[in-house]
From TrEMBL:
Belongs to the D-isomer specific 2-hydroxyacid dehydrogenase family. Residues 3-320 form the D-isomer specific 2-hydroxyacid dehydrogenase catalytic domain. One of its GO terms (molecular function) is phosphoglycerate dehydrogenase activity. Its EC number is 1.1.1.95. This is D-3-phosphoglycerate dehydrogenase. Pathway: Amino-acid biosynthesis; L-serine biosynthesis; L-serine from 3-phospho-D-glycerate: step 1/3. Coiled coil: none annotated. It comes from Cerasicoccus arenae. Residues 331-450 form the D-3-phosphoglycerate dehydrogenase ASB domain.
Length: 535
């Protein structure tokens, strides 16, 4: 495996990659002798790479992903993945993962540092002292956090830690987060309010959400207009949650007393940005996660996560794929192969124009997290249709094909202790069905029903599925015609439909019949249809 470490992650993380047997590690800044690589440099280094580790510096664009045909994992040593083109990665089946949590405390503490620096003229005092001054009389008076109201927008990991610290300082905390449950707010001892209330009642406001279409410019001119005069604003999350032009106006007018910023709409911050010359603003260059502890933690976490994923183990903290508990994954392993085969079988059995795949789980399997199994079924369905399909991109590829996927779960099944059923519903309304289970102690996968007819068929090799009139001599006919072609029959499973007078024969073959033999079979007067299925 080849890893490209594109941004400055901790040496411990890099060492972890290097210690893995069969791993080659390219460290970008050693090759290009610069802190961060340009897009062209990343493209020039990524050609045969299996995994790329980044922080927020390197942009993993569609072009970068396209230039890396072997790429399997993008690892972000940190939280925000806005520098990674996730749809492009998903489309190409590349896992994108991050390390949530590792830099929470570092960022919460930086936010608090900003709140304190926004309350007292620390930065100015320091600059003037260093310039030889003693500005005791000239500096503006500060303010206390004690008994002030802090509005926290976004009560995730960092927002919650900031809120805890604020309570320690004797602040009243108002919380705005539409996804925060009442019970979590209660546990944190916070008052949950709407955004309007928060902006009107807070003395300090800090934002801790990702930048999304919903959060972009959430704090704009209109929001600032509603705020108390002398409000103080802080952004250590993502540039653009607070609209910079509105903040500049607010600071200039005096409506906003102070601001503390670690992130910007454009990074690096433009040299002529008005913030740079404002006394009441403290600026840091995206330093939230830059503590030794946080970098050590996210660097080693991302290296371990990437190695696990690349070595076929557990996938953790993936943005474009569900994570699963390792114990559940272990239990699920025997089913994954069956699921993939059922997906492939139903695709080959169906005609064109499948609009929906319905996956139904019955019996004790519903006690497991079946998400990876549903992905394996979808991957199996697409294996012959879509190149480079994998568990990451299978759902989006089906969506592009206009195929809906529905999953249902039921605790009982009449005939088996557990059963996986996959149906393909065609635009004509016709539904094809296959179901399978695991047999015995060895947990051997078997197909046990096709279109509602009970069979018992292995899930590998070549299968001939024949629907024929239930008349004498059909089995003999198939044996003869296949024998003439030199095709050996390994096993035969028959199901009869007394009502309709049809039988389903599933013949397991050692090799595929020739085109001429297939034509001969399809021309037989009692054979309504047949399919050769490769599993
Ligand atoms: N400055 C830095 O160096 C630095 C370091 C780490 C994280 N960050 C950034 O800080 C932010 C928060 O990180 P986190 O680890 O706490 O993330 P998180 O996912 O734990 O929390 C985000 C919270 O935002 C909330 N949210 C989402 N949409 C919202 C909306 N429309 N309105 C209000 N709340 C909304 C979510 O419900 C969630 O509680 C992220 O943008 C992350 O990239 C910056
Ligand atoms: O989202 C994050 O984790 C922060 O923005 C940290 O970014 P960094 O790893 O580039 O410091």
């Amino acid at each position: 495996m080849k890893i490209l470490v594109a941004d400055k992650i901790s040496p411990t993380g890099i060492e972890y990659f290097k210690q893995q047997p069969g791993y080659e590690v390219v460290v970008a800044w050693e090759v290009i002798a610069d802190w961060s690589a340009s897009p062209e440099q990343v493209i020039s280094l990524i050609g045969d790479v299996d995994g790329i580790a980044v922080r927020s510096e390197t942009t993993v664009s569609e072009e970068v992903i396209a230039a890396a045909p072997k790429l399997k994992v993008v690892g972000r040593a940190g939280v925000g993945v806005d520098n990674v083109n996730i749809p492009a990665a998903t489309e190409r089946g590349v896992i994108v993962m991050n390390t949530p949590g590792g830099n929470t405390i570092a960022t919460a503490e930086l936010t608090f540092t900003h709140m304190l620096c926004g309350s007292r003229p620390i930065a100015r005092a320091d600059a003037e002292m260093k310039a030889g001054g003693w500005p005791r009389k000239t500096l503006p008076k500060g303010a206390e956090l004690y008994q002030k109201v802090l509005g926290v927008c976004g009560l995730g990991r960092i927002g919650a830690e900031v809120a805890k610290r604020a309570q320690g300082f004797g602040m009243t905390v108002l919380a705005y987060d539409p996804y925060l449950t009442e019970s979590r707010a209660e546990t944190l001892g916070l008052k949950k309010v709407d955004l309007d209330t928060l902006v009107k009642q807070s003395d300090y406001i800090t934002v801790h959400m990702p930048l999304t279409p919903e959060t972009k410019y959430m704090i704009d001119e209109a929001a600032i207009a509603k705020m108390k005069k002398g409000v103080r604003l802080f952004n250590c999350a993502r540039g653009g949650i607070i609209k910079e032009s509105a903040l500049i106006e607010g600071l200039q007018s005096g409506k906003v007393a102070a601001a503390g910023l670690d992130v910007y709409e454009d990074e690096p911050l433009a040299k002529d940005c008005p913030f740079r010359s404002m006394d009441n603003v403290v600026l840091t260059p995206h330093l939230g996660a830059s503590t030794s502890e946080a970098q050590e933690s996210v660097g080693i976490e991302i290296a371990e996560q990437m190695v696990d994923a690349l070595n076929g183990g557990m996938v953790r903290n993936a943005i474009n794929m569900p994570s699963i508990d390792p114990k559940d994954l272990e239990k699920l392993k025997p089913y994954l192969n069956l699921g993939e085969k059922l997906g492939s079988f139903i695709q080959q059995l169906s005609n064109d124009g499948v609009e929906k795949i319905k996956i139904s789980y019955f019996g004790k399997i519903i006690n497991l997290d079946t998400t990876p199994l549903s992905r394996a079924i979808q991957r199996g369905y697409l294996a012959r249709i879509s190149p480079n399909v994998n568990d990451v991109n299978a759902p989006s590829k089906l969506e592009q094909l206009g195929v809906d996927v529905e999953t249902t779960r039921s605790s009982t099944d009449a005939n088996y202790t557990e059963l996986i059923e996959v149906q393909a519903i065609e635009s004509s309304g016709k539904t094809r069905t296959v179901a399978g289970t695991l047999f015995g102690k060895s947990q051997s996968p078997r197909i046990v029903s096709i279109d509602g007819h009970g069979v018992e068929v292995n899930t590998s090799g070549t299968l001939l599925v024949v629907k024929n009139k239930d008349v004498p001599g059909m089995v003999g006919y198939l044996g003869t015609v296949l024998g003439k072609d030199g095709v050996n029959i390994a096993n035969l499973s028959l199901a009869r439909d007394q009502g309709e007078g049809f039988a389903i024969s599933v013949v397991e073959l050692d090799s595929a019949p020739s085109a001429a033999t297939q034509a001969e079979i399809s021309g037989h007067e009692h054979i309504e249809k047949f399919k050769v299925i490769e599993l």
